[in-house]
Amino acid sequence: MQFLRLVAALVSAFFLLLTVAVPGASAATSATDVTVSISGSLVAPPGTAVHPFADAEITGSGTMDGISIRITQGHNENLDTMKLTSPPAGITVIYSSSKGLLRLRGTASVADYQAALRAVTYEESAATAGSRTFIVVAGRAIYLPLTGNLYEYVPGTIS
Description:
- It is a single chain.
- By secondary structure, the protein is mainly beta.
- 6% of the residues lie in helices and 46% in strands.
- It has one domain.
- The chain is globular, with a radius of gyration of 15 Å.
């Protein structure tokens, strides 16, 4: 797994430190050599919806079946919200405010997932000290901050 850290300076309300995990092509996606890259930093006043992944690039070919975005540090379930209001066809959105986890699911092209990731918004409803760290995982795996590992449920029976 590769990690990319982007740091912004603390200004006024908050800043976002984006941490991006890129597991590459795996069983979780049928795309070839999927790479997610994000650059830049972001500062915005509370109550303003921002697009922290507006410059995200997903390269590869074929289809994908998911992306997960999780606030791994600084998350406040009462103040933080992530949304994707108009997902591309074939992609559904599931958000857990208690986990700070936005899941994009469904079989769609790499280009559709790039458009979806770029359209995700984040909003902090009131000013809080500190920053937010996000991790973006291509595929169906979920990142667990406690262990620093990726997990994926695989249905089946043990014989």
